[in-house]
Specification:
The protein has 523 residues and is of the alpha/beta class. Helix content is 49%, strand content 10%. The termini are far apart.
Amino acid sequence: MSTLRDAAMTSKAWPFEEARRVLKRYENKPPEKGFVLFETGYGPSGLPHIGTFGEVLRTTMIRRAFEVISDIPTKLICFSDDLDGMRKVPGNVPQQDMLAEHMHKPLTDVPDPFGTHESFGHHNNAMLRRFLDTFGFDYEFYSAREFYRTGQFDEVLKRAVERYDDVMAVMLKSLREERQATYSIFLPIHPETGRVLYVPMKEVNAQDYTITFDDENGTEWTLPVTGGNVKLQWKPDFGARWAALDVDFEMYGKEHATNTAIYDRICEILGGKKPEHFSYELFLDENGQKISKSSGNGISIDEWLTYASTESLSYFMYLKPKTAKRMHFDVIPKAMDEYDQQLRAYADQDAAARLNNPVFHIHGHNVPASDMVVPFSMLLNLASVSGAEDKSRLWGFIGRYAPDASPEKNPQMDQAAGYAVRYYQDFVKPAKVFRAPTDTERAALEDLRDRLKAWDGGLDAEDLQSMVFAVGKDHGFEPLRDWFKALYEVLLGASQGPRFGGFIALYGVAETIALIDERLTAA
């Protein structure tokens, strides 16, 4: 363990770099609360999207890294701001007109348009927890509704009344002049309409911890700040939550980065110690637009898991968190193959290299062995040329290529075969476009076919690759990648593809000969 810990203390993997910053908070004495608290926040104004999952996953990776370098216990809280007022109706849910009637009510007081839960907020919270539970995250779920209404937030809310002017001074600096005139850190929840009100305060009373305000109709109300009668504006809520829970670490998207100083200062005014932060870049859809839970663009967790493994999604999330990444269906095959490459490398790596390997941060100390005998990209090409309708078609080829492999002995392989067929049917098949070969390409393809007919070298992928390579050189392809591009476009109907020698070994020599003849005849 000491060797592992020593390696972790110098590892350049970003989860260890962040974990070491958290550990510095307690280099003099351990936390009084008895554990280090990691937190993630979630706004349930729409269905949970893949960015929310990424936030919890990445925080878990840092938490796991912290547990390697320290014996201090840890805890992860997923906090849902479900007392937030619904400011717009999400475009990707049913019963739009019904929802519009409940604008500005707390999300946990808005009826569930799906009819399955107590409220829209409860529905979205349940969706989030289902997603997180799919991945086996170790977390505690906190609801803002419960946090405010059961009194857990009361002490910090009272402190916010006592230090109202100090908190307001921080906020007013960040607001335009016209907004300053009506701004208050407190948002009352109307006793009659149940709506979250954005109104100025007439009085904030530190003697009895009440606020006085006029509602939209000019009626004056006085409410206690405790017991769920008010909530804090979202920026003060960040800092107040950190102070109330004594949060040690929270990450968020770059859209929050400019507010970090505000969150920190409010946390300190309210008696807390500002946590460590990590600002990550956002995910983009196929058009380069930010993924939004209200518009439902981009790829969802369920969609990714239809075509690829949970581990491949975790791998994608691990990579370069401070770089904006386009996240669409076409990134899936690469993520599947790269994850497996890292899994294979892990077995022979020393402690330092393992801590820098993404699979350690995905699996911790329980990294499985790979049973993939064929890369996912190869399975896709195999599904494409064979027109596979189910994975049993692929296993016919796999079994011949690797006789010892089977669905029972190679569950990762079996799962990947199923994903490959689904991906082929939904994305590859509709987009397949074959082109006719040029005269030079036709001559080379006929030569390749004839050499395959005379081939007696078995199914060694490297030997076959060398032979394919030699055909391209003999026919003057320069650069040689143009030869392989021709193979993909003429034979597979795609612009890119696998190492062709490996493809022949898997698909079969006789089958490849037939494929070449078929495409030359069709052209």
